[in-house]
Design a protein that fits this description.
glutathione transferase activity, 2 domains, glutathione transferase, Glutaredoxin, 222 residues, Glutathione_S-Trfase_N, alpha+beta, 4-stranded mixed β-sheet, Glutathione_S-Trfase, Glutathione S-transferase Yfyf (Class Pi), Chain A, domain 2, transferase
């Protein structure tokens, strides 16, 4: 049986959602973040050398990376659902958003997380003002302008039809969900009506709700 190696509060929630949309039977192997470091446990390295989630095992296949996993599931089990026909203009747009999610949208969000941790890190009292000044400078000079640029671009794309590929829900919407959920907490994503509406639509989907029930607590959906 296909198994999802699922880490709490992580990108693997997207994989559970995808499987629920497709109606595939699967098992969940659960892992918990270290409460101090928020990193995945070392036990995940027994599944994949990088020790990160999501990872799936499907027979003799072990596959990591959200986009690769979602594309594999669409190709192996989708039977043409949730993805446009290969070679079509819609397919090229679909592949673009599948790569954009992690390649372009997530890096500034990760930097925002890093600068927030720098500003709030435990350190000698005399070092805190310097650390906070560095973090604020990075945010103002690079991180926040990049977040505004990307979420403005995403919001404009969603204004056209409400979905990322044409006027129909697709795997690209599942892939893009994590940066938008994270951006609603760490960045200016929630300031855009089209992004808020997108999040409301996906959170109301029955398959999304079922994935939450099976996956457990997921802070980004709150």
């Amino acid at each position: 049986m296909l198994t999802v190696h699922h880490l709490n509060n992580s990108r693997s929630q997207r994989v559970l959602w995808m499987l629920e949309e497709l109606g595939i039977d699967y098992a969940i192997e659960r892992y918990e973040r270290d409460p101090a470091t928020m990193l995945a446990p070392q036990s995940l390295r027994a599944v994949h050398p990088l020790g990160k989630s999501p990872v799936i095992t499907d027979g003799g296949v072990t596959l990591a990376e959200s986009g690769a996993i979602l594309e594999y599931l669409a190709e192996q089990y989708g039977d043409g659902a949730l993805a446009p026909a290969p070679g079509s203009p819609e397919y090229r747009n679909y592949r673009y958003w599948m790569h954009y999610a992690e390649g372009s949208a997530m890096p500034p969000l990760l930097l925002k997380l890093v600068t927030s941790r720098i500003a709030n890190a435990r350190m000698p009292f005399f070092a805190k003002p310097i650390a906070r000044k560095i973090a604020a400078s990075l945010d103002a000079g690079f991180v926040d302008p990049q977040l505004s640029l990307h979420f403005g671009y995403i919001a404009e794309a969603l204004e056209r039809s409400g979905w990322f590929v044409g006027d129909a829900f697709s795997v690209a919407d599942i892939q893009m969900s994590f940066p938008l959920e994270a951006g609603a907490q760490r960045g200016p994503a929630a300031a855009h009506p089209s992004i808020r509406a997108f999040l409301e639509r996906i959170h109301a989907r029955p398959a999304y709700r079922r994935a939450l029930e099976k996956g457990g607590p997921y802070a980004f959906a709150e």
